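Lecture 7 notes: from sequence to structure.
We start with the chain below.
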Amino acid sequence: MRANYRMQRLFVEADLSRGRAFEASKDQFHYLANVLRAEEGSDVLVFNGRDGEWRAQLSYPTRKRLLLTATEQTRPQPAPSDLHYLFAPLKVGRLDYLVQKAVEMGAGLLQPVMTQHVQGKITSLERIEANVIEAAEQCGILAIPQVTAPRRLEDLLPDWPSDRRIIYCDEGHDSQNPLPTLNAIRESKLALLVGPEGGFSDGERSLLRALPFVTPIPLGPRILRADTAAVAALAVIQAAIGDWK
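Predicted structure tokens for the same chain:
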């Protein structure tokens, strides 16, 4: 069932079931009451990443409190996406964009990876999680992607599960078309690895190419910025062997 994009959607922490009432957060109160000027009895859509999506009715027990009461489920909870997204952090503004687009494109887990030429850093996992939730609210996504703590590439690979294939963007690939390589992949568990703007070091590329569960792909004849490469790679993977197929 497709999302209803005409109604306001909110992520909430509360459990959701018919008749369950819970209080809006301070930020949600401000947004609904002061920005949208939502009236008593109006409806919004709410989700918590566990119980599906629900229609909820607004009520104001006092001038400074807002209650939401779940009235009916509009969509059941789907299974989470199994596509893992591994990325070298970028500078803050572009990192926000990258995280939001990864969620929109169907990433189910976001793993920051520290590489030799990385230019950004992760100062707050909470900021990444906030961007994940914002993207989910805007795009009708119900399963909230998991965000994991940063790890160095050389520490991540030794204990990587061999049944999950890592596809990484390699600007030094001999061809320009990623489709033949992607179509030859038989594993259903996938991860995409996108490096920093400076690219992977020679040592990192050698390490990746030596592993049997790693596949390099090109992304066409042009050099792409890291955030652009992420969106392009996620799109081509989803179209060729992912949930667009």
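Points to note: Helices lie at 26-35, 92-104, 125-139, 153-156, 179-183, 202-209, 226-241. The chain has a mean pLDDT of 93.
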